[in-house]
């Protein structure tokens, strides 16, 4: 594969970062919004909560980044931390009503932006883009699984 196409791909990804991935929707970036969506159904009375350590794998970001995002949301009054009644070593993070409203507004703003983007792109190109993004994600996932498997081979011990 020639380096020109690789450079073009990297350039296109960088150009997308600012207007979409790094933008703020109702004051929330997409990573923060993803964390809020992940804990949306958490409640002190649930047996199916997502805990802070679960978020690291789900969101694919470091524990430190998750902690920083949660602290910022807590300062804004968007989430609270409570000790799990069934396991006092775990903390349950739940959204406050203000956090739910901010998430709702953020979702609405992001949806509006995405709808405008897809409308301009056109139905055919939008379907093609989704197909290619899914293929890209499948290949990346397959490569990650192969790489993770190479660490468990007898030769690597």
Structure, explained:
- The chain has 157 residues and is mainly alpha-helical.
- The chain has a single domain, classed as Winged helix-like DNA-binding domain superfamily/Winged helix DNA-binding domain (Arc Repressor Mutant, subunit A).
- The protein has six helices and two strands.
- It has helices at 3-21, 30-38, 52-59, 63-75, 97-121, 123-150, and strands at 79-83, 91-95.
- The chain has a two-stranded antiparallel ribbon with strand order 1-2.
- Strand 1 (79-83) and strand 2 form a beta hairpin.
- The longest helix has 28 residues, at 123-150.
- The protein is globular, with a radius of gyration of 19 Å.
- It starts with a helix and ends in a 7-residue tail after the last helix.
- Mean pLDDT is 86; it is low at 153-157.
Main beta-sheet strand count, sense and barrel state: 2 strands, antiparallel
CATH topology: Arc Repressor Mutant, subunit A
Share of β-strand residues: 5-15%
| Mean pLDDT metric | 86
List keywords for this structure.
2 strands, globular, Arc Repressor Mutant, subunit A, about 160 residues
The gist of it:
With 157 residues, this protein is mostly helical. Helix content is 65%, strand content 6%. It has 6 helices and 2 strands; from the N terminus they run ααααββαα.
